[in-house]
Design a protein that fits this description.
single chain; two-stranded antiparallel sheet; Rossmann fold; alpha/beta
Length: 341
């Protein structure tokens, strides 16, 4: 769909007239969101005046942050910090991403997330998680304020964590996983699903309607953060409708994460059913492949109800990884294959 240039221009003129007079410095309804709009609009039109105005708004935001500025994502520090990180990462602002929001890190980390009962994005725990994950993207060095311990605190005590990692594409079977997770919540209210990856969030959010407080969409995360989630999770699910190999499943096995995979392509060969993982069949309904949601629900519930067995499954998965997929061994097998041709 082509942009409505006339409407965009009217919006830009209105915001230039009124933007500086807005008291709210936040992301969703304040100056931070307006600044992001003008940086994009400047890049779209090639007009430097909009870039300059956005820069003035950023200066105003920092000067107007005070001790009473809320911590939330909608109007507060988490949203402002996420917005600044977004601008730096997308080269709208030239700054050191490790140093620029450091004061915000200090302020936000003062909150004891273990005592927060609001799990929403706008004003609760999910907004803080969104900020923390954004700050940890593409980091070579450990952030002194946001470490693994803080991420662990973001996951409420006694929660059972299920992890999916991958793009939010139809072929990844995520719709079936979300459907199964809805059924899991009927008997395991303490379960939480973390979906790590980019893609069409609109479709997945619609599928997750009614259980948004129980699901966290992190977007793309770096390897370090991904592996930290593997270390905190109770199980990993790789439910692709088709997968040539399955690197995500192998990484989960490497971290001793109890694993559920679908019986398709390379995934079917990676895990031994009932020994180093559990398998779920793919059904064909009306000429369309889909995950067996009933079976997936049963397997997830079984692992949640049997932690000793789940631990053994994870340990066996680690052994299988070391025996078949560890990098030096994998290289040796590939060289033997090439030499035999």
């Amino acid at each position: 769909m082509k942009p409505n240039n006339e409407l965009l221009q009217r919006i830009a003129r209105y915001l230039m007239l009124h933007g500086s007079f807005i008291d709210n410095t936040g992301l969703l309804s304040g100056k931070t969101g307006i600044a992001i709009f003008f940086y994009h609009y400047s890049r779209y039109t090639g007009e430097k005046i909009y870039d300059d105005f956005a820069g003035e708004l950023i200066d105003e935001i920092y000067s107007e942050i005070h001790v009473n500025t809320p911590c939330d994502f909608k109007d507060g520090l988490c949203g402002i910090g996420w917005g600044m990180e977004y601008l730096i990462r997308n080269n709208f602002v030239i700054a050191d991403s490790d140093e620029a929001p450091e004061d915000l890190d200090k302020r936000i980390m003062e909150r004891d997330v273990r005592r927060i009962t609001d799990y929403s994005l706008e004003t609760g725990l999910k907004g803080i998680a969104c900020y923390v994950i954004g700050r940890r993207k593409n980091r070579d060095n450990e952030n002194p304020y946001i470490g693994q311990g803080y991420i662990q605190d973001l996951i409420e005590e006694n929660a059972k964590v299920i992890v999916f990692a991958g793009r939010l594409d139809e072929v990844k079977g995520l719709g079936g996983l979300i459907n199964a997770f809805k059924r899991i919540l009927a008997t395991h209210a303490d379960a939480r699903l973390f979906i790590l990856g980019d893609g069409d969030f609109n479709v997945r959010l619609k599928e997750a309607s009614g259980i948004w407080a129980k699901i966290t969409f992190t977007g793309r995360v770096d390897k370090k953060t991904l592996y930290e989630f593997y270390g905190l999770a109770d199980m990993g699910v790789v439910c692709s409708l088709h997968e040539e190999f399955g690197f995500v499943a192998i990484e989960m096995m490497m971290h001793e994460l109890p694993l559920i995979v679908t019986e398709t392509g390379g995934l079917d060969e990676i895990a031994e059913d009932g020994i180093s993982g559990l398998k779920v069949p793919i059904l064909t309904v009306n000429d369309k492949r889909q995950v067996d949601v009933k079976c997936l629900t049963e397997k997830m519930a079984f692992l949640l109800d049997n932690p000793v067995y789940a631990k053994e499954l994870g340990e066996n998965g680690r052994k299988r990884f070391l025996g078949k997929y560890d990098l030096p061994l994998f290289k040796e097998k590939m060289m033997n294959l090439y030499n035999s041709v």
